[in-house]
Write a structure and sequence with these properties.
The chain is an all-alpha fold. It is 77% helix and 3% strand. A hairpin with a 2-residue loop joins strand 1 (109-110) and strand 2 (113-117).
Length: 235
């Protein structure tokens, strides 16, 4: 008997990954029930986000597709609290870069397996280019965010910096993208914790990024394992 699509997806993930995803979903639902109950857009974004991360941990392009959806919804949520930096970052940088990353991941499967991207490492020249672009983007966004009177300007600007590093490394298929996202998660936990002091409903967003931090750290270690395996079995 042929496996159903659901069975294939379920068997695709390890027991640890299933537990990690289930744990994240449960915490997100609990936080929503306790502190929100009204902003279903936030709940939807959180569930899409945590699902995208478990696919990203496997190097699966589906994760990048889900990141595109998450970024658009998260941009709207950020606008609701005047976090214009987050809104502009996700709508004008993360979303288009996720589209480019999706294309890059689809074009570079490992040994023709479209559910696993071939892992890459940026070279010295690309590293210098990344640092220069990061400095330029950070400086540019600082003045843009200041012009729009963005709430919590300095952490908001730092979020732009870490976000750009993350999307650049994701596009390049470098395992360190997960560490950059983990750094971004840490900044966002601070940002939304500050927002939660004014509106308790944003605690659910804070919890979302705590879950993201755990998942991004797992993604880095899993990519390191994948990289070792791919190097031992080159295409």
């Amino acid at each position: 008997m042929k496996k159903t699509s659901f069975t294939k997806i379920f068997s695709y993930f390890s027991l640890g990954e299933k537990i990690l995803w289930s744990f994240g979903v449960c915490l997100i639902l609990i936080a929503f029930i306790l502190f929100d109950r009204t902003n279903y857009m936030t709940l939807l974004a959180s569930l899409i986000g945590v699902t995208s991360l478990i696919f990203n941990a496997k190097g699966n392009p589906v994760g990048q597709f889900l990141i595109i959806l998450f970024s658009m919804i998260y941009g709207v949520i950020s606008y609701s609290f005047s976090y214009y930096g987050e809104m502009i970052t996700y709508l004008m940088m993360t979303t288009p870069m996720a589209i480019l990353s999706l294309i890059a991941w689809l074009k570079n499967p490992f040994k023709g397996n479209k559910s696993e991207v071939a892992i890459n490492r940026i070279n010295k020249g690309e590293g210098i280019c990344m640092i220069a672009l990061t400095f330029f983007v950070t400086l540019l966004f600082y003045f843009i965010l200041k012009f729009f009177h963005t709430a919590n300007l300095l952490p908001g600007t730092l979020s732009v910096t870490t976000s750009f590093l993350a999307v650049f490394l994701t596009y390049k298929r470098d395992p360190r993208f997960a560490l950059a996202y983990a750094s971004n998660d840490f900044v966002l936990i601070i940002l939304w914790s500050l927002a939660s002091f004014e509106d308790l409903t944003y605690i659910s967003v804070t919890v979302c990024f705590v879950i993201f931090l755990i998942n991004d750290l797992y993604t880095f270690f899993n990519w390191k394992r994948m990289e070792k395996r791919q190097l031992a079995n080159p295409a």
